[in-house]
């Protein structure tokens, strides 16, 4: 064919590319080279010059080449141009994309993955947003890929922020976001914001500054990072919803939170002192948790012993009083017998453990009765036998 020398797969008018020429490629370009992927329109080339070039090529293929073209030749040229122009309306939607068709600048349909057709440019346009792609951006840090490694460089104008207690902190964080896969959100993403990446980055920086500005530096540098990340994500989502951006913020992750380089050594000393303070507090609490239960147990033991002694004393006193009452009742009935009994019982208690000599005043003679201490005799008898056994 006359146009076989055209490179690529974009058709006779060099409209080929990535997203939607007549043969499945192109950036939604029409036969005139217009139709960018996002907004705007192209300017068709000079029709007179185009027809002139086409006539020169048709002379080489039509019968009687070299002569002037008649009305039939011009009609054929117009029909060929029209067919090629209509063929540029075919486009392919890749997996993970959604085709948004516009006719005269108005959204008319959204198409699934596959081969589809819409009016060519400038009548129609097609946008192909990647709704399943997870996008990521960094704030406060500029990442550069060098070979297989990634180098990070601080961006002070983005990372330096003022805290709620009027300190300066250096914050770098990442934001992950994507397009919401609904019809209205896709339309909002395409037509309500001009620079989605820049908009998300500006909203992220603003939200982080607002949250950091209401938080003390101690909480930011230590244990409160998860709360800050959630608050920033929530505030970003509210702001983007107010813009009708059609964007969903999936995650906010703080990469580095440090004091400025000029005072970082002093902050590290403060952090070390606070760590020591926390360690000493934990040791004190552990000691208190060990000593206090022991003291409480000892106090409970002493209290129980006191209660037992009290109960014992009261019981003994009650028993003695009852015994006295019983004796007194018997004493009223038989005073002499009771006195004699009490006398004998008292002597029994007093003399029971003492050596005794019994004298009978009424007996004839000296009055001393012979007394045989059987327990002493037993002790004296056992001693010689033990000595005899040892001698043998």
UniProtKB/TrEMBL annotation:
Superkingdom of the source species: Bacteria
Topology of the protein relative to the lipid bilayer: Single-pass membrane protein
Region (Disordered): 1-48
Compartments in which it is found: Membrane
UniProt keyword terms in alphabetical order: Hydrolase, Membrane, Protease, Transmembrane, Transmembrane helix
Alphabetical list of CDD domains matching this protein: SPFH_HflK
Predominant subcellular localization, coarse grouping: membrane
One GO biological process term: proteolysis
Keyword Lipoprotein: no
Any Pfam family the entry gives: Band_7
GO molecular function: peptidase activity
Gly residues compositional bias, start-end: 7-43
Segments passing through the bilayer: 61-87
Band domain sequence ranges: 88-271
CC terms in the record's Gene Ontology section: membrane
SUPFAM superfamilies in the cross-refs: Band 7/SPFH domain
Family: Belongs to the band 7/mec-2 family. HflK subfamily.
Function as written in the Swiss-Prot or TrEMBL entry: HflC and HflK could encode or regulate a protease.
Quaternary structure (record): HflC and HflK may interact to form a multimeric complex.
The protein's name: Protein HflK
């Amino acid at each position: 064919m006359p146009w076989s020398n055209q490179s690529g797969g974009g058709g006779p008018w060099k409209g080929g590319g990535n997203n939607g020429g007549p043969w499945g490629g192109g950036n939604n370009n029409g036969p005139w080279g217009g139709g960018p992927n996002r907004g705007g329109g192209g300017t068709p080339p000079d029709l007179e010059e185009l027809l002139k070039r086409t006539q020169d090529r048709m002379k080489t293929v039509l019968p009687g080449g070299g002569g002037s073209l008649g009305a039939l030749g011009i009609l054929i040229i117009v029909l060929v141009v029209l067919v090629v122009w209509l063929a540029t309306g075919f486009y392919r939607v890749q997996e993970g994309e959604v085709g948004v068709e516009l006719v005269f600048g108005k959204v008319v349909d959204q198409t699934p993955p596959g081969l589809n057709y819409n009016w060519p440019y400038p009548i129609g346009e097609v946008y192909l947003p990647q709704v399943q792609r997870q996008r990521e951006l960094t704030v406060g840090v500029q990442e550069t890929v060098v070979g297989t490694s990634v180098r990070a460089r601080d961006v002070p104008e983005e990372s330096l922020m003022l805290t709620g207690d009027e300190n300066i902190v250096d914050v770098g964080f990442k934001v992950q976001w994507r397009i919401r896969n609904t019809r209205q959100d896709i339309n909002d993403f395409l037509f309500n914001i001009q620079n989605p990446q820049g908009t998300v980055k500006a909203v992220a920086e603003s939200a982080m500054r607002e949250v950091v500005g209401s938080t003390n530096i101690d909480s930011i540098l230590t244990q409160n990072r998860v709360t800050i990340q959630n608050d920033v994500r929530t505030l970003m989502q509210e702001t983007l919803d107010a813009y009708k951006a059609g964007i969903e913020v999936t995650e906010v992750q703080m990469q580095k939170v440090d004091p400025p380089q000029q005072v970082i050594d002093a902050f590290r000393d403060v952090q070390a002192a606070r760590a020591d303070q926390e360690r000493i507090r934990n040791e004190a609490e552990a000691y208190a948790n060990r000593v206090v239960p022991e003291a409480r147990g000892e106090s409970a033991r002493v209290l129980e012993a006191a209660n037992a002694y009290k109960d014992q004393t009261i019981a003994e006193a009650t028993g003695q009083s009852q015994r006295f009452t019983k004796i007194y009742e018997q004493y009223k009935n038989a005073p002499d017998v009771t006195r004699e009994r009490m006398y004998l019982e008292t002597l029994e208690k007093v003399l029971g453990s003492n050596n005794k000599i019994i004298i009978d005043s009424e007996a004839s003679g000296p009055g001393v009765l012979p007394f045989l201490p059987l327990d002493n005799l037993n002790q004296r008898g056992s001693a010689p036998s033990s000595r005899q056994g040892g001698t043998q």
